[in-house]
Amino acid sequence: MTPFKSINPATGREATSFEEHTPAQVEAILADMRNAQRCWRNFRLDERAECLRRVADNLAERAQDYARLITAEMGKPIGESLAEITRCANVCRFYADHGPAMLAPETPEGAPQGARIVHEPLGIVLAVMPWNFPFWQVLRAAAPALLAGNAFLCKHAPSVTGCSLALEEALSGVGMSDGLYRALVVRDERVAAVVEDPRVRAVSLTGSRRAGAAVAEAAGRAVKKCVLELGGSDPFIVLADADLDLAVHTAVGARFYNAGQTCISAKRFLVDRQVVREFEERLTRSVGLLKMGDPLRPETRIGPMARADLREALDRQVRGSLDMGARMILEGGPVPGEGFFYRPAVLAGVRPGMPVFEEEVFGPVASVTSVDGPGEALRLANQTRYGLGASVWTRDLALGAKLAGNIEAGNVAVNTLLKSDPRLPFGGVKDSGYGRELGRSGLLEFVNAKVLRLPPGA
């Protein structure tokens, strides 16, 4: 088998390589995990919670090492990598502190006498995870699944195999059953067989629509629960009365954090024609100040893109849109030399039908579309196959709330940055997937809500 290569995006050079798991190794992993989960499900909730707290401690103690690994494998600026590790520790602590109460037996109002609902684990949960947040995407799914009594098998993107194995290390030696959390190092074409293995009882995927459809098809054939968190083309609506200082300041982070490689980042800026020129001028000025360079330097705001093919795909979207009439008002594009750097760009005059409007744009490019009032803004916001997130910027809070209520998305914010939060469910509609992560909803995705009807006194 050809090894998986870890390529440093800042240099374009191979850093290390990893051997793929053989079929015999996969079989051994699944057998060990089944035994571990059968033991783990009998741990008390407070014991499982304490294990999660130890995971959080491990992450905090080795934050610098893990952050440097993230940056080395996918190019994220070191400050953002450190913030990612902090979020991971926080999500473990959140479920340790609040998860047991969420999983407590409940008696619905009006239920028959002696009836109650208990929440039991399903078994092994297979997670197919992406490269853009190689620790956070995993732990926001793993922490609740593990607390609920499941085992967690992570098939990560090949380019961040080092991160995947480091996560396995971070979750070892914390008091969980041995083998409860494992990294699975296999190619995409071998995933369906793992999904269909009877020891795997549920699947979670974060990634592209194509990957989600393939995994959901395999899960459907095997009649297994599946949660999909797919892409987005999030609208960022700026109305004529918006606080432009706040909107532009937030827009820069919302679009260019992680070099724009974020599923829930703002991707389509729908700006009222009365303020579009001023918005464009302010945005280009602010984006032009972002420092691009070595992602290990603390002052860097824009690192390289994660892979060469991703940079090429982004540039095709930009060039295709320019050919259709878009204007580049902040000059950007691939940077010659080593690494996969793409200088941030801002496009204006973007219209429906252009690649940067119709497709998910994963990279440091902002596209601005002029709209004629709230009605057209709402129409264009919903004119997409995706439905992950959105934001509305206006001083008219009643109007903002009304628009938010009519946007087809799983997450909508008014006058604030949209981001995932352990306290709240996260997910999308339409081609952005189904099911939820985080919050109580995410915790209950991979449990059996068993109804018990017991005699009095039982």
Automatic annotation (TrEMBL):
Gene Ontology molecular function terms on file: succinate-semialdehyde dehydrogenase (NAD+) activity
Region feature Disordered, mapped onto this chain: 1-21
Keywords, ordered alphabetically: NADP, Oxidoreductase
EC number(s) per entry: 1.2.1.16
Limits of the Aldehyde dehydrogenase domain: 4-451
Pfam family, one: Aldedh
Family: Belongs to the aldehyde dehydrogenase family.
The name this protein goes by in its record: Succinate semialdehyde dehydrogenase [NAD(P)+] Sad
Taxonomic source organism: Fundidesulfovibrio magnetotacticus
Gene behind this protein: sad
